[in-house]
Design brief:
The chain is an alpha+beta fold and 117 residues long. The chain has helices spanning 36-54, 74-84; strands spanning 3-8, 13-18, 21-24, 27-28, 61-68, 92-97, 107-114. 26% of the residues lie in helices and 34% in strands. Strands 1, 2, 3, 4, 5, 6 and 7 form a seven-stranded mixed sheet that branches. α1 (36-54) packs parallel to α2 (74-84). It starts with a strand and ends with a strand.
Length: 117
């Protein structure tokens, strides 16, 4: 049983793999000054980039926990999510309102995926 850690910092790893399961650290927008739709889109882009680096893709996502600063943005975030997720590959998902690490952040995603065999 091995654990692989990719892109480590003194605080965390951006990617951790164990037994063919990939865990991503929480992902936020590339530019936190943008509106919820743009923040959601660029967060999903970062998720895809990390999954690719780990040997997976969005079709292999098992679960996603979405943290949203204000539920008033839930519908707008879902518009982007629904256009991004592929039919037949929808992961288990939870979405909760949360206080973010920085006030300008509107959304953060925590992803678990299977490695492509």
């Amino acid at each position: 049983m091995s654990i692989t850690r990719i892109d480590q910092t003194p605080r965390m790893s951006r990617i951790v793999e164990h037994n063919g399961t990939i865990y991503l650290c929480g992902q936020v927008a590339k530019d936190a000054s943008k509106h919820i739709k743009e923040q959601t889109l660029t967060t999903l882009e970062k998720v895809e980039e990390l999954l690719d680096k780990a040997g997976s893709d969005k079709k292999h996502i098992l679960s996603v926990t979405i943290y949203i600063r204000d539920m008033k943005d839930f519908a707008a975030m879902n518009e982007v999510w629904d256009a991004w997720v592929e039919e037949g590959h929808q992961p288990a998902r939870a979405c909760v309102e949360a206080r973010m690490a920085r006030p300008e952040l509107l959304v953060e995603m925590s992803v678990v995926a299977a490695k492509i065999e």
